[in-house]
Amino acid sequence: MLDELLPSAIPGYAQEISWLAARRAAAPGATGWGLAGLNLNPSLATRTGYDSAPNGSASSSVLGLIPSLLVADPVAGFGAYAEVEATAYPQNSAQNVTGAALAAGERAQLPGEMLTLSAAFLKSAESGFALSSFTITRPIAFTLKDIRARDDIAAGCLTVSPRLSASVYNFPGMASQNWRDLRTSLRLHYDDGAPLSYVTELRAGFDSGAETSQSANDYAVLAGLQEKADGLWTVSALAGDAWRVLRVGQGLAAPVMEARLDWSPDQLDELHLNLAREIDDPGRLSATPYTLTEAKFSFTRTGLRDLTAIATVDISNAAYIHAPLRETLFTGSAGLKWHMSPALAVEGRYVFNDRQSGQLGAANEHVLTLGVSWAP
Fold this sequence. Notes:
By secondary structure, the chain is mostly beta strands. Mean pLDDT is about 85; it is low at about 15-25. Strand 9 (about 180-190) and strand 10 form a beta hairpin. It has one domain (about 1-375): Porin, CATH 2.40.160. The protein has one helix at about 1-5, and strands at about 35, 40-50, 60-75, 80-90, 95-110, 115-125, 140-155, 160-170, 180-190, 195-210, 215-230, 235-245, 250-265, 270-280, 290-305, 305-320, 325-340, 345-355, 365-375. The chain has an 18-stranded antiparallel beta barrel.
């Protein structure tokens, strides 16, 4: 969730093998402001449009406003980000949402190693078009506090990377849904300078909910490789076994896989493809155990008279562990952004959400918006 929202300039929130991230980024040509060695990149975006079924409820027009500020010191390895997002539905005010994000990270280069520390706070809302959220007809507010630590220790061609993250989720007025998430991993990466490099990773996660039935431990043993052709493509893959051990009830073991392709056939096009199969998805807000199979695709075309076109497809299928339920979510989007100047851009966007489940019912949503953004 945080990896998808936060800018890649924040140390600690960019991963080698992770889901496609639609991160906030400065417009082409935008330089921001300089102050005492810092780069300040403010932005302001507004949008309006129509939503046919927010959270599966009554249709409404949409009004949105997003001010943000990115502060970075590339020399010191520091980055910080702040954002506020307000979305109003005039004909369906129960869907109104106000969110905020704060994050900071520091990357320090030490002799033979690189240490990364980061922290973030997120105020957002759970959506009805998400796995295991079929009973949600209005946004459910929550807050997330997250801290991360990572150390990359180099020894010749081998890099050893222990990692630790801790997250606390709170749902105001719904204390029974609160939980804590602690995750640790140890990665061994072998890279001798050849296009092909190798990685082995051990993972462990410990989830503690307000109710014992929500608590579980997760373990995974993974191995994989990465193949690079500089300036053209990067292919990453991890595969192995994972176990989810419930504190109450029967657990599950299953093979898991993560794979990613980043391909730039020329200076105008970018293609990203992500595939995964895992037990649950630690990025989702759900204590309901399931086996997840997911695919994400994105294609971006830039440079056409200051126009940028992007199309995305996201398909997720959940097979629930303790019930004969299956659920499939589909999200497709298409957008066109016109950079009127280095600081000003206009964007039109269409999003289609669809949920299919024989037991839980079906729902879909069409969202059409037009927005203007400013970034000096």
